[in-house]
Structure formats: C-alpha cells, structure tokens
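Quick one, T. Sequence first:
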Amino acid sequence: MATHNDLGKLAEDLAAEFLLKNGYKILVRNFRFQKAEIDIIAEKDNLIIVTEVKARSTDAFMLPQEAVTKTKIKSIVSAANHYLEEFNKNQEVRFDIISVLPDEKGKLIIEHIPDAFEAFDAN
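Structure tokens:
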C-alpha cells in the first residue's frame, strides 16, 4: 500500500477523475488560503462544488469521511469564502466529501457524498 502522502495524492487524482467522468468541471485543485486547503473546487449545474478528499488505508479506526471535523469544516468554509470573493463567483456552493478506501482485495473504492456538510455546520 502507498505511504500516507502517496495515498492522499492518489486519492485526490482518483477523485478528480471521478468528478470529470460525472460531468463536473474542475476549476482548481489544492486551493490554499492562509492555513486552509480545499482539495478540489469544481462546477456542475451552476453550483460551485467544494470537495474534501479523505483517504485511509483501512477503516479499522474510522471511515475517511469521519475525519472531517468541525475545525476542518471551518477551515474549508473560510477558504471557500475567500475563493468566491477572489474569483467573483456568485453561484450557490455545495460541500462534498469523497472518501477513498481499499476493498478486501486492495482496490481503491470511491464514495462520493454530495452535500456532506453545510457552512453553518462549522459553527
């Protein structure tokens, strides 16, 4: 299995491929604002889709999406607000999570969770 950083990069690449295959337009990857980072910002159906990608080599301790804490949500929302202002975007925003986890045979499985959280979840 890949190391932690390799798995994260691979998961982000797989997530971006998944989104493209499903009709999303990738606007930016790894958007940074202060200490926050958004893995993928995409667009579909006139929505801005802010996507957090989480990968784990096992779900023995927690599912990947369970690692998206209130603190992480606050950070993502802050970066998303900055992105919208910087690029003068006026569309509605949806926050998704894509989790990547190997199955019993080691094949990486993608689970897309649309509308996984809302900006007010950060409060």
